[in-house]
Amino acid sequence: MQNAEQRRLELQRKKQKLAELKSIRQKDEESRVQNLLRTNENGAAQNGASHRQTLSSEQMEEILREVGISAEPTIREESPAPPRGAHAENHLNPMSASASNPRISSLLSVDLEFSTVQTASTDNKDSAIYSKGTQTDDERISVGEFSLGSQEFDYDDDMIMPVDHGQFRGRAHSHDQDSPLPYNEEIAKLLGQAKHVDKALQRQDTEEKKSTHVQTVQPLSEEERNRLTLDPEFLDSFNRSCKVIGRALNEDIDIFINYTKDPYEKAVASDDLLHLAQVYYDETWTAKRLVTGMAFSEHHPDLLAVSYGPCDVPNEPPGVIVVWNTKSKRITAEFIVYCQSEIQSVAFARFHAHLLLAGCESGQICVWDNRLTSRKLPINRSPLTTQAHTQPVSCLAVVGTKNAHNFVSLSRDGRICSWNVDNLTQPVDGKELMTKEGKPASATRMSFPIGEMQTFVVGTDTGEILAASRNGADPAVIKTDVCYKGHSGTLTGIEFHRASGVVDFSHLFISSSHDWTIKLWSTKDANLKFSFESHPDLVLDVAWSPVHPAVFASIDADGNIFVWNLNEDVEGPVARLRAGAEGDTVYMNKLIWSADGKHVFVGDDEGRVHMYDVRESLYVLKSEEWNRFARVLSDMKESNEEAEKYNM
After folding, report:
1. Can you give the pTM of this predicted structure?
2. Which of 484, 448, 478 is nearest to 464 (CA)?
3. Which one of 238, 329, 358, 602 is most buried, counting C-beta atoms within 10 A?
4. Does the keyword Transmembrane apply (predicted)?
5. Rounded to whole angstroms, how far apart are CA atoms 429 and 153?
6. Is 404 left (phi over 0), alpha (psi -120 to 50) or beta?
């Protein structure tokens, strides 16, 4: 292989010189042929066409030399090789060697005859190195050249002529003779050398192909596939990869946005402010189940946890929680967990990003870790003791700061417990909520002001709203400080004002009831601020917008979704939409806003969660919205004072 590489480099260096020599030889050859033709024509004209000219030995030798045929005869005896250091004139030219040898000169008069020229040809292969392809033809043999692949080969100083049957041995140079004679034995030898080189190159190519060959993936057997599909780590990695690809393929880009429209323009039609964007539903896990609770994650605002009640299908878990990805166009359930008790409420642990909390019908508190995707049952649950809850847990809340926070739960019997999420063996404290009259309060809903962890309000079955504080002197009882009376039916929803801005409205809260009304209250006094009475049926839930100070939404048992903007109208909603097909009644049970205020989520009794897009004017605020709402509240207060004077 090393010799072949050296030869290739040497041939490249001589290529230009050989091209020039070939051009000169071709011109000389053409000149000799023309001179020979002119000589023959002149001789024929002198002696006549029927007479043949007799040539001397010297002329015959000259003619044969010009056409590339050697005049030397076949010599049976081998002559000794000339010394290696002899001059080129004594051994390069066969004619000069024969002239100095009397035996050879005496044999020049032998008869000549035509013989068959042996040729060999192989496929030509264009490459920069020697290859299998070796091609020879009469024309190139006549000028002393051979074709090995795409490289031109010629005699050089290292090529020794073989000696066979009395032929002279010596080193031939194409530029030292006019028409060198290629021997068939030499061609055979060169072809053999090319074959050896080609075999070595073939082995090298085979080794390179083996080194670069890509291993084909062998299909798994049935046993291997079954074992892999049961591996929790594989399933976790596979599900996570599917979610990443799904998010990449479902980027939400609004290509129909109209920049010429006024985003603050008031809608002409009342239902133009709401648009159904998505329905989250799973035939296996949520079908025919009542939505009992909804909560967004503060760490991952795209995740919505929804708790579902029992279904009529036998052997199905009575309580299910599905965590939906609300940013994906494709309906995607990020996590699905369940327990063996009906779930009444759900919440994310604010300061534990991976924990999911639930309050059960049995009175237990259950905890799941979404990092353990293969585990569907709770990783921890509270015991059934009298120190904790013995009635259904209707509300959950995580209040406080990262360094000082509590997980608070409320049950229907009015018992409030504080928990350490890392230890549910027993509550940190448990107290009974009492009315001013000293009676146990049957609580249904609870709400804490933003940034507050001690004071709270609770709605009851009787329609009363109780304001209390967890910091009481009695370690077993919480006595209410203020009682808000105005509703005549069970409280179904209660929530403090959530939007923060230039004016503080955190003292406001709203409530909904089975008495078909929504009422506005303030912790500064127990008087009713305003009553909204536009719903045609039981009002089942109400929630403030997290960004707009004057906007809230409500739902009723007739399937109506109302969106209110008190800066625009206090007598009726600015948007009204009926869920479901025309003529159908959908029982709406739970309501929640997205953290950015762009979407409203409503859960029904069929296991569906409806996501509605709201108009930009409801979450893109003008600077005067806060002051306008303050004036609206002032007008409400004046109207109430005038009504009281009139009633007196």
Report:
1. 0.61
2. 484
3. 358
4. no
5. 101
6. beta
